[in-house]
Design a protein that fits this description.
Helix content: 25-40%
EC number: 4.1.1.17
Structural class: alpha/beta
CATH architecture of the largest domain: Alpha-Beta Barrel
Shape: elongated
Low-confidence stretches: none
CATH class of the largest domain: Alpha Beta
Pathway: Amine and polyamine biosynthesis; putrescine biosynthesis via L-ornithine pathway; putrescine from L-ornithine: step 1/1
Mean pLDDT: 93
Number of helices: 10
Protein name: ornithine decarboxylase
Largest sheet: 8 strands, mixed
Enzyme class: lyase
CATH topology of the largest domain: TIM Barrel
Catalytic activity: L-ornithine + H(+) = putrescine + CO2
Number of domains: 2
Number of strands: 18
Oligomer: single chain
Length: 376
């Protein structure tokens, strides 16, 4: 929802062109909800979701840790006030020279998912802690993650054994249940696999200590979602079921769930037309897939759209962006209901866009500038 602070900002500043406005008060509330829901877990904010310096500084001041995907994101977290022991290099695909640079910065926690990556970490960041990412099915997620990251649990045993043999600290296991995960049981399935890895390595005298339960915590788009407290209870129950009284250290990596509902994109209707008399209307906005709405690919994420004509009769519309690329179409398979009276020049708000918009925005495709961002 657009907060009153966001509405007032847009009304008084009247920024030109499409822009994202993020309300830090909502980010603060979200962090507090995660702390309350999973008090025993350390929070590592996924910087990739929205790396605005104001967001990182706020979270650093509240005690957050940070999940980073590159040296640049590590530098962002450090500049925001995080110390190296509060930063994880969570990308499983890293150049060896980038690992060495992170090690120079004092980073000692790295994600891996194969022996070759372990060998790079052992050479460039000797003695560091590593955790191995295992594959999760992602069932129930609106933005499922591919097989690009992680390995099967049986292979994770080999990976962590190799880490131990190379002098690294075989610290634990990680998984990601898929972004915008609405199935509360998803973590239970992944934790069952995780416990199997713990048990097999314990028999070899390698005692893992940490479970990184990843992100996946959703933000509200068109459908209601469970509360942070509901996720916390379901995850704690699953941990207790699989690990009993000997609970491991735990990490969570919220990104979308931390900032998604804190942001609203203001955009303008550029054109309304039809391809044929009996066809759906096409509504062209001054923002599209290349301007920050990449998550509309395959229509996986359906944002809440608020118009100045809400309450008028609705009809299905195809939404598209302003670029000269035929892929810049957002809702064609399942057209989006919008007011019949919507017209050229109307400003509309796309809610729940605080995550994965500025970072997915093209630099200058077709000459359109990257999505402007304001943090208030």
């Amino acid at each position: 929802m657009a907060t009153q602070r966001i509405i007032d900002f847009l009304a008084t500043r009247r920024p030109e062109g499409p822009c994202l406005v993020v309300d830090l008060d909502i980010v603060r509330e979200n962090y507090e909800h995660f702390e309350k829901a999973l008090p025993a877990s350390r929070i590592f904010y996924a910087v990739k979701a929205n790396p605005a310096p104001q967001i990182l500084s706020l979270l650093a001041s509240m005690g957050s840790n940070f999940d980073t995907a590159s040296v640049a994101e590590i530098e962002m977290a450090l500049n925001a006030g995080a110390t190296p022991d509060r930063i994880s290099y969570g990308n499983t695909i890293k150049k060896e020279r980038d690992i060495a640079r992170a090690y120079e910065y004092g980073i000692r926690l790295y994600a891996v998912d194969c022996v070759a990556e372990v060998e790079k970490v052992a050479r460039a960041a000797p003695g560091s802690r590593v955790f191995c990412r295992i594959l999760a099915d992602g069932e129930g997620a609106e933005w499922p993650l591919s097989r690009k990251f992680g390995c099967v649990p049986e292979m994770a045993v080999d990976v962590l054994r190799a880490a131990h043999q190379l002098g690294l600290d075989a610290y634990g296991v990680s998984f990601h249940v898929g972004s915008q995960q609405t199935d509360l049981t998803a973590w239970d399935r992944a934790l069952a696999d995780t416990k199997g890895v713990f048990d097999l390595l314990a028999k070899e005298g390698i005692n893992l200590r940490m479970v990184n339960m990843g992100g996946g915590f959703p933000t509200r788009y068109l459908k209601d979602i469970p509360t942070a407290q509901a996720y916390g209870e379901a995850i704690f129950d699953a941990l207790s079921r699989h690990f009993g009284n000997r609970l491991p250290e735990t990490i969570i990596e919220p990104g979308r769930g931390m900032v998604g509902n804190a942001g609203v994109i203001k955009t303008e209707v550029v054109l309304v037309s039809r391809k044929a008399d009996n066809d759906n209307r096409w509504v062209y906005l001054d923002i599209g897939k290349f301007g920050g709405l990449a998550e509309t690919m395959d229509e996986a994420i359906r944002y809440q759209i608020v118009t100045p004509r809400d309450g008028d009769t609705l009809e299905p519309c195809v939404l598209a962006g302003p670029t000269c690329d035929s892929a810049d179409v957002m809702y064609e398979k399942a057209p989006y209901p919008l007011p019949v009276s919507l017209t050229i020049g109307d400003e509309v708000l796309i809610e729940g866009t605080g995550a994965y918009t500025t970072t997915y925005s093209a630099v200058a495709f077709n000459g359109f500038e990257p999505l402007r961002s304001y943090v208030i």
